[in-house]
Specification:
With about 180 residues, the protein is an alpha+beta fold. It has 4 helices and 8 strands; from the N terminus they run βββαββββαβαα. The chain has helices at about 80-90, 130-140, 155-165, 170-180; strands at about 35-45, 50-60, 65-75, 95, 105-110, 115-120, 125-130, 145-150.
C-alpha cells in the first residue's frame, strides 16, 4: 500500500501566504506615488526629568513619470514624522522635463551652500548620483543621468538644489519659444 505523502511547502516553494500576506485573494493596488525617506534627524531637548527627543523626516515622493516633490515632517515619533513629511511632499510636486530616459541638457542647481550638477547620459548608463540627489532623480523617473553634489552635504539643501536644477530644464521647443517671445 503506497502511502501518499503531503509534503509541507515553504515560502520559497510557493507555500506561505504569498505577496503581502494576503489570504483571501485580495490584491493591494499600487499607490500612485512612491515615497522614499532620505534622512531622519533626532533632536533632543534637556528637561527636568531628562531628555525629550523629537524627530524630523525628509521624504521625497514621485511617480517615476516626471512628477517629484519633497516634504519635511517633525513629530515626537519617527513614523508620525515620516507620515507628515509624505503628506507635505504630495502637496509640493514639481514637473520634470525629460527627453526619453534622460535629461534634455545639463543644469546646475544651487541652494544655500549646496550645489548640484546634473548632466544627461547615454541610454543604459543608469543613475550615477549619490544620497538625496539619487532619490530625487529616481523618483522623478530619470533613468540615465550623471550627477555631482558639490559644496554642502546637508540632505535638505542638496534635495532643494537638485529640484532647482530639474526646474531649469527646458525642451528644445520651449527654449525656442522663450527666445522668440
Amino acid at each position: 500500500m503506497a502511502e501518499e505523502r503531503t509534503e509541507r511547502r515553504g515560502r520559497r516553494d510557493g507555500g506561505g501566504r504569498g505577496r503581502k500576506g494576503r489570504r483571501d485573494g485580495e490584491v493591494r493596488e499600487k499607490p500612485e506615488f512612491e515615497e522614499r525617506v532620505v534622512h531622519i534627524s533626532r533632536n533632543s531637548k534637556v528637561v527636568k526629568g531628562g531628555r525629550r527627543f523629537s524627530f524630523g523626516a525628509l521624504v521625497v515622493v514621485g511617480n517615476r513619470k516626471g512628477r517629484v516633490g519633497y516634504g519635511l515632517g517633525k513629530a515626537a515619533e519617527v513614523a508620525e514624522a515620516i507620515r507628515k513629511a509624505g503628506e507635505v511632499a504630495k502637496r509640493n510636486l514639481n514637473n520634470v522635463t525629460m527627453r526619453g530616459t534622460t535629461l534634455p541638457h545639463a543644469a546646475t542647481g544651487k541652494y544655500s551652500g549646496a550645489q548640484v550638477l546634473i548632466r544627461p547620459a547615454s541610454e543604459g548608463t543608469g543613475i550615477i548620483a549619490g544620497g538625496p540627489c539619487r532619490a530625487v532623480l529616481e523618483l522623478a523617473g530619470v533613468r540615465d543621468v550623471l550627477a555631482k553634489s558639490l559644496g554642502s552635504n546637508n540632505h535638505l539643501n542638496v534635495t532643494k538644489a537638485t529640484l532647482k536644477a530639474l526646474g531649469q530644464l527646458r525642451t528644445k521647443e520651449e527654449a525656442l519659444a522663450i527666445r522668440k517671445g
